[in-house]
Write the structure tokens for this entry.
Amino acid sequence: MKDKFSLDMVSIRLITDKKLYSDTAINSPEKAVSLIGQEIASFDREAVAIINCSNALKPINAHIVSIGSINESIVSPREVFKAAILSNAAAFLIMHNHPSGVLKPSPQDYIITGNLLYAGELMGTHLVDHIIVGYNNGKLDFHSFKEHGEFNIAEDAFKKSNSFANFLSVPSQNNIVKASKNLSEVLSKYKGKEPHQTSGKKEHI
């Protein structure tokens, strides 16, 4: 006789580690850096953190989502949004360090930013900024994607990368093109007509 299937009941909870001693709205990169920039920049490897925010951009909490190597870190949207959802965040900011002190974004930095911008729109928790921090001649310095107008670059970099295909769970760029073409055909079919109607016949999608 087969054992009966059993389903575990689980609870998910957020555990506070440290207190953020500020309730000032993060409406500039300087305010974000003053909050956790020194702590993130002090890592000897690349570390990635997020600051979860309310609608008013007041910080709810901060969470380190990844610690990598001297020049590379892996950021999973899953880990980013896990903390954001548990925090009931309306927005979030991502910050990571460059131990070398060279704050110019790498191609991977752009792709990750585009990834989180795209995912944030789907999740209803939008990305406010991506800030790179580091020490330059002993002085804490930063690079803000938003301040430099680089969100468009990040979106384009993500869409042109293989990450876009993986994010949509399709195996190749050809399938993305095919899916876009099919969608265009569906939309043109109903252009100028009432929803779910064509040639007097009701159709359901």
Observations:
- Residues 107-123 form the longest helix (17 residues).
- Residues 194-205 have pLDDT under 50 and may be disordered.
- The beta strands are 47-53, 59-67, 91-97, 126-136, 139-144, 197-198, 201-202.
